[in-house]
Specification:
The complex is a heterodimer of chains A (110) and B (114). Chain A is an all-beta fold and 110 residues long. Chain A is built from no helices and nine strands. Chain A has strands spanning 9-13, 18-23, 31-38, 45-50, 55-56, 61-64, 70-75, 84-92, 104-109. In chain A, strand 3 and strand 4 form a beta hairpin. Chain A is globular and about 40 Å long. Chain B has 114 residues and is mainly β. Helix content of chain B is 0%, strand content 56%. In chain B, strands 2, 4, 5, 6, 9, 10 and 11 form a seven-stranded mixed sheet that branches. Chain B starts with a strand and ends with a strand. Chain B has strands spanning 4-6, 10-13, 19-25, 31-38, 42-51, 54-57, 64-70, 73-78, 87-94, 104-105, 109-113. In chain B, a hairpin with a 2-residue loop joins strand 7 and strand 8 (73-78). Classes of the chains: A mainly beta (110), B mainly beta (114).
């Protein structure tokens, strides 16, 4: 699995966009980028994934650079309930095992 | 919405007891997983199951066993609980083998072994 690097913590104001970066410079061609988050005292929650195209769903958007060495998760209108640890993972879709790094602790301020 | 439920949020057991942790999913998912999560160690896979009565060891299966008699239910068994098994236990499910990345987690069981 490619190593991912994320900032330890970030904050943003409620209602503003939260842009969470992830560096995965050693990603290989068959590795997808996945994002999960974990709200305090809850299980992790799948957010979104992508290979090379940008992706959007009801929760977030994922922007992957053309060289695939980095990506950004965008929460378009952050709410207080988005305060959580966000994990960026890069590994093949055939791998059944999720490996979470340290993640980014996002604090959404009122 | 996918729902994964776990039998208890908090559990306290004594050393040597046999412990059963139950997990149920309601979305007819093929795959189910048991992880434990510890500070500084992240998420570690204990076992997973890709079909009824089928199971595979994860990274840390020692001291644990599992049972999957029905598709919707995956049980984790601690044969003889020890203090180093004090942890947060998380169950997850995913739709099919082509979508392992898309795992849906339960709320977790915080187990304390004294």
């Amino acid at each position: 699995d490619a190593k991912t690097t994320q900032p330890t913590s970030m904050d943003c104001a409620e209602g503003r966009a939260a842009n969470l970066p992830c560096n995965h410079s050693t990603i290989s061609g068959n590795e997808y980028v996945y994002w999960y988050r974990q709200i305090h005292s809850q299980g992790p929650q799948y957010i979104i994934h992508g290979l090379k195209n940008n992706e959007t769903n009801e929760m977030a958007s994922l922007i992957i650079t053309e060289d695939r060495k980095s990506s950004t998760l965008i929460l378009p209108h952050a709410t207080l309930r988005d305060t959580a640890v966000y994990y960026c993972i890069a590994h093949p879709d055939s791998s059944y095992k999720l490996i979470f790094g340290s993640g980014t602790r996002l604090l959404v301020r009122p | 919405d996918v729902k994964v439920t776990q039998s208890s949020r908090y559990l306290v057991k004594r050393t040597g007891e046999k412990v059963f942790l139950e997990c149920v999913q309601d979305m007819d998912h093929e795959n189910m997983f048991w992880y434990r999560q510890d500070p500084g160690l992240g998420l570690r896979l204990i076992y997973f199951s890709y079909d009824v009565k089928m199971k595979e060891k994860g990274d840390i299966p020692e001291g644990y066993s599992v049972s999957r008699e029905k598709k919707e239910r995956f049980s984790l068994i601690l044969e003889s609980a020890s203090t180093n098994q004090t942890s947060m236990y998380l169950c997850a499910s995913s739709p099919d083998p082509s979508r392992f990345y898309e795992q849906y987690f339960g709320p977790g069981t915080r187990l304390t072994v004294t």
